[in-house]
Amino acid sequence: MQRAGEFVELGGPALRMSLHVAVVKVPHPARQAEPYGFLLYEVAESDPLYASTDDVAAGGDHPPIVAWCTMHIMNRRTFLGSAIGGALAAEMKQNTFEYKPGIKADVFRLEDDAPRPVLVWIHGGALIMGNREGISAPLKKWAAEKGYALVSIDYRLAPETQLPEIIKDIEDAFVWIRKDGPRLFRANPAKIAVAGGSAGGYLTMTAGFRVKPRPTVLLSLWGYGDLVGDWYSTPSPHERHRTIKMSREEAYKQVSGPPISDARDRKGDGSAFYQHCRQHGTWPMAVSGWDPKRAAEKFYPYMPLKKVTKDYPPTVLIHGTSDTDVPYEQSTMMASEFSKHKVRHELISIPGGEHGLNGGDPHLIEAAYQRAFAFVDKSMGL
What is this structure's pTM? Predict the structure, then answer.
């Protein structure tokens, strides 16, 4: 392995492909914590490509792969900017708390005594999967640069816990932040922004009308406001939802244990259960116990699409136009409601972007994040 901190040129001007990476853990000799790094297995884009060997295992025995993801290639200028942001993020101190019995929140903030505005991150996973450690990397970098206290929360997961109790966890997290945050991590309870991706985007927009006092501003990443539409209540036509097939009995065995608030504590395969739900159009019933066709009104108290008023917080949305997991129309419908009720908002679209913006133009994606972050900062008075 190269020495930590060196730069390695990974490609040249002639290369124009996409890059996929495996997330690995690479020990860093200068820090006790193990940072995440990237093991490259396919090369990409134009301009010389650089990566720090803090992040890349080059040759020799590679560390074990712990997750897969997609990363956009960075040229040297973008990489250096990212590295500076990463250094800031590394300076944020992390503490873990229980905001209610058995349910945790990770808090990241700079080590000083200044009261800090709060940025709450709510992870995605169809309300079935995920945990508080799944934080958006651009968001964490931004939080460090702007001095937010970043609070990433767990919440009980479906179907072991049903929708009303999941939303109760979200509400209780904000009660805890406002009550105990000033004492525990010098939070400014008057300035709270909320962000989340996919189901976390749904929960972010739900916080916009369920949490009282309302948050200051919301950022939804490829989220949704509708729980009963055909996209969720009829069989999905997309291949992404057909990679695992099992019977209903087998699917429910995957989620037959006690309530959990971290998918890593589940003995079964939550992703297999989610796939079964999408193949049969049963997700709304699975997470709530209600039939979306016969009892749609039961969902309405938990549906952002039905709860926008003039008092709704300013909201910025980012969504890919080719999303086959959460349709792009989910964000356009919310934008229409915001316009109707004169709520300050912005919808930032990524042409050709799949779920999580995969396949979108990396320059447009970077610009979208910066535009969205500026919207939030302005709303927070920063």
Answer: 0.79
